[in-house]
Specification:
Distance between the termini: 40 Å
Order of helices and strands: HHEEEEEHEEEEHE
Radius of gyration: 16 Å
CATH class: Alpha Beta
Strand content: 35-45%
Structural class: alpha+beta
CATH architecture: 3-Layer(aba) Sandwich
Shape: globular
Number of strands: 10
Mean pLDDT: 87
Helix content: 25-40%
Length: 195
């Protein structure tokens, strides 16, 4: 677990380096999808489950085929809101503390048992040239109340970008292994805004 935490911290810091991880993902067999406000490049073997852009709803989920294991599918999802929030006014550590303290109760409302919730990192970084609040945390998940015989230690990375022109996008990576965190962080770092 310590190795995973070290990797996540390194990846969060790498988001600040313009294009570093995007170049790693920019090998062959990638595709780019235009979501209107932004473009995202990802491995063409990954599965994009595109929803509708609705207030507070899941806009899309990208499932990693290369890094997922039998017990959990690593994924990147996106939620959109029309509201604009000045990201520079957010205190990342306060937001991480709130997330860690509230996560178990919020997960329980969806039938997920989440224990051992740990904050890893909170920063104000750049994502595609725009300010983003980036949080990383981990937890142990038990899906038995949802009817699945599945328990997993998961790592989450969340990046929130807000702009008066398009509202707020919250991107969340959930992964059961280091390879998933690495791949999906590279995908997230490939974002380019259509402004």
């Amino acid at each position: 677990m310590r190795k995973t935490l070290a990797v996540v911290i390194s990846l969060i810091l790498a988001l600040a380096a313009v294009g570093a991880l995007a170049e790693a993902a920019a090998g062959t067999n990638n595709t780019t999808y235009n979501f209107g406000d932004f473009n995202l490049m990802y491995p063409e073997d990954d599965k994009l489950d595109l929803g509708e852009k609705t207030e507070g709803g899941v806009y899309f989920t990208l499932f990693s085929t290369a890094t997922s294991e039998a017990n959990f599918t690593n994924n990147l999802n996106c939620i959109w809101s029309s509201a604009y929030n000045d990201i520079k006014q957010v205190k990342p550590q306060d937001l991480l503390d709130y997330t860690v303290n509230a996560f178990s109760d919020q997960a329980a409302t969806q039938g997920l048992i989440a224990t051992n919730v740990q904050g890893i990192q909170a920063d104000l970084l750049q994502l595609g040239g725009l300010d983003a609040v980036v949080l990383a945390y981990s937890y142990d998940a038990d899906y038995s109340k949802l009817g699945y015989d599945l328990q997993a230690s998961l790592t989450c990375l969340s990046a929130c970008v807000s702009d008066p022109d398009f509202g707020t996008y919250t991107f969340s990576i959930t992964s059961g292994n280091e390879a998933g965190v690495t791949e999906l962080t590279a995908v997230l770092d490939s974002i380019t805004w259509n402004r």
